[in-house]
Automatic annotation (TrEMBL):
Cross-referenced Pfam families: Ribosomal_S20p
Function: Binds directly to 16S ribosomal RNA.
NCBIfam families, per database record: S20 (TIGR00029)
GO MF entries: small ribosomal subunit rRNA binding; structural constituent of ribosome
Residues in coiled coil: none
Organism from which the protein derives: Microbacterium natoriense
Protein's name in the database: Small ribosomal subunit protein bS20
Length: 125
């Protein structure tokens, strides 16, 4: 109350809220379009390490995406109520989860928890 009296402004008034104007046709705010450039290393080994990390990041993204697809397919098979399809989807999802663990993409316990949750749903059919 005291602040509004001193400043003469109300919270939520047009004077206190900033209006963001989109800078692109897609409506993306300017600060998201032009982020600060990340620091570029001068050391040769660090430049190589950055490249390696980027490759691993892309590979891990691909594995995680495939993993999500198979887990989603298993959950969809459970939702339809078809036990044979659900068991087949569980088998492929479990295989993909184990493969992701062996590649170091996800932790062993996370894979175990996911497999357990899907298997529990399949067993309930």
């Amino acid at each position: 109350m005291l602040v509004s009296l001193v400043l003469g402004l109300r919270v939520g008034s047009s004077l206190t809220t900033a209006v963001q104007e989109p800078s692109s046709p897609a409506g993306i705010p300017k600060q998201l379009l032009y982020r600060k450039r990340p620091h570029v290393a001068n050391i040769k080994s660090q430049i190589k390490r950055n490249k390696t990390n980027e490759k691993a990041h892309e590979r891990n993204k691909a594995v995680k995406s495939e993993l999500k697809t198979h887990v989603r397919a298993a959950r969809a098979a459970v939702a339809t109520g078809d036990k044979a399809a659900a068991e087949a989807a569980l088998k492929t999802a479990a295989r993909k989860l184990d493969k992701a663990v062996s590649k170091g993409v996800i932790h062993q316990n996370q894979a175990a928890n996911r497999k357990s949750a899907i298997a529990k749903q399949v067993a309930a059919l």
